[in-house]
C-alpha cells in the first residue's frame, strides 16, 4: 500500500489552475491588429453603418486614441476573418486612413457568432425597425438551429414547434420587446424595400405594416404606387381589409386603388408649382441651394403685404 504510486500528483493539480495575470495574458494573446483587407463584414449584417455626424466623431476619436475596445472577429476556413461586432469601428478606421483594426479573435460557430452580433448591436442608442426586424429574425433562426440539434444526452432533436415558441420566449425575456412584438418585427422582413423604408421613416406604423406583410410582392408594390399617388399611407383598418381581400383572392389592382383612394386624416392636398414659371421669378444670382429659402421669404413678405392692405381697407 505504501509503495503504490498515486495517479493524482500535485504537479498535475497545479496545472489546472492559473493566476489572473496568466489569464489576462492569454486573453491579450487573442487580441491583435488585423489588416482591414483581411476582414469581411458579417454576412447579411442587418445594422446600417452610416457616415453621419456620429461616425465623424468616432473617426476623430480613433485618430486621437485609436480603437479603445477591440472589435470581435472569428477566423474563417480560408484564413480570412469575419467581423462579428465592430462594423462602425472598422468603418471609422477606414475613414481615418488606418490599415489595421485592433480585434479579439474568438472561436465561435456561425450560430454563436450570429447571436453575439445581434446582442452587441442591440446596445446602440438608436435602432431602426428594419434593423431590429432582420436582427430578431437572424437570432431566432440561430437559436432554433442550436436548440434543434440532437442533445448530447439522448441524441434526439427537439420538436420544431416547441423550438419556435421557446426561442421567442427566451428572446423576449432578454429584450425590451414582448413575444408578440418580436413576432411583429419579424413579419416586417416580408415587406418590399419601399414599404420597409416607410416604416423606418415613421410614415407607416407597426400594425398596418404587419398586415401589409401578408400580401404578395405584386400587391405590396401596388400599395406603394397608391401611396405615391395619394401622398398618404393606409390606415390600420384599410390594411386589414386589403389583407382580407388578399386571402379571399380578390385583392386586385383596382381593389387596392379603391381602398387607398378613400379620404383619410393623413391625406394631404398636393400643391403643384410649374417649375419654369417659378424659375422666371427667381433672380439669377440666387444659388439653387437657396431657392427654397428665397421662395419662402418672398411668400412671407407677400402675406405681410396682404395683411397690411386688408388693415388699410378696413379703416
UniProtKB/TrEMBL annotation:
Cited NCBIfam families: parB_part
Span of domain ParB-like N-terminal: 32-122
Family per similarity comment: Belongs to the ParB family.
Gene3D superfamilies recorded: 1.10.10.2830, 3.90.1530.30
GO molecular function per UniProt: DNA binding
Listed name of the protein: ParB/RepB/Spo0J family partition protein
CDD domains to which the protein is assigned, alphabetical: ParB_N_like
Short name of one Pfam family: ParB_N
GO cellular component, one term: chromosome
One Gene Ontology term from the biological process aspect of the record: chromosome segregation
Amino acid at each position: 500500500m505504501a509503495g503504490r504510486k498515486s495517479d493524482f500528483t500535485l504537479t498535475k493539480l497545479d496545472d489546472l489552475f492559473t493566476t489572473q495575470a496568466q489569464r489576462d495574458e492569454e486573453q491579450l494573446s487573442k487580441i491583435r491588429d488585423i489588416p482591414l483587407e483581411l476582414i469581411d463584414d458579417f454576412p447579411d449584417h442587418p445594422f446600417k453603418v452610416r457616415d453621419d455626424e456620429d461616425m465623424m466623431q468616432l473617426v476623430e476619436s480613433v485618430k486621437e486614441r485609436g480603437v479603445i475596445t477591440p472589435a470581435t472577429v472569428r477566423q474563417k476556413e480560408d484564413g480570412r476573418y469575419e467581423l462579428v461586432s465592430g462594423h462602425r469601428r472598422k468603418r471609422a478606421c477606414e475613414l481615418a486612413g488606418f490599415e489595421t483594426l485592433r480585434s479579439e479573435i474568438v472561436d465561435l460557430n456561425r450560430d454563436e457568432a450570429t447571436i453575439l452580433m445581434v446582442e452587441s448591436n442591440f446596445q446602440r442608442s438608436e435602432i431602426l425597425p428594419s434593423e431590429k426586424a432582420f436582427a430578431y429574425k437572424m437570432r431566432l433562426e440561430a437559436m432554433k438551429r442550436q436548440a434543434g440539434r440532437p442533445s448530447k444526452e439522448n441524441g434526439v432533436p427537439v420538436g420544431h414547434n416547441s423550438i419556435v415558441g421557446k426561442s421567442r420566449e427566451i428572446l423576449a425575456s432578454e429584450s425590451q420587446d414582448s413575444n408578440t412584438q418580436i413576432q411583429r418585427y419579424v413579419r416586417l422582413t416580408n415587406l418590399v424595400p419601399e414599404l420597409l423604408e416607410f416604416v423606418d421613416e415613421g410614415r407607416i406604423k407597426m400594425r398596418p405594416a404587419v398586415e401589409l406583410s401578408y400580401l404578395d410582392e405584386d400587391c405590396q408594390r401596388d400599395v406603394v404606387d397608391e401611396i405615391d399617388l395619394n401622398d398618404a399611407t393606409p390606415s390600420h383598418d384599410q390594411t386589414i381589409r386589403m389583407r382580407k381581400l388578399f386571402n379571399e383572392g380578390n385583392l386586385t389592382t383596382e381593389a387596392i386603388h379603391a381602398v387607398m383612394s378613400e379620404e383619410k386624416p393623413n391625406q394631404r392636398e398636393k400643391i403643384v408649382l410649374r417649375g419654369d414659371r417659378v424659375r422666371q421669378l427667381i433672380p439669377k444670382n440666387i444659388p439653387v441651394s437657396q431657392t427654397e429659402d428665397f421662395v419662402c421669404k418672398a411668400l412671407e413678405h407677400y402675406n405681410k403685404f396682404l395683411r397690411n392692405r386688408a388693415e388699410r381697407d378696413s379703416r
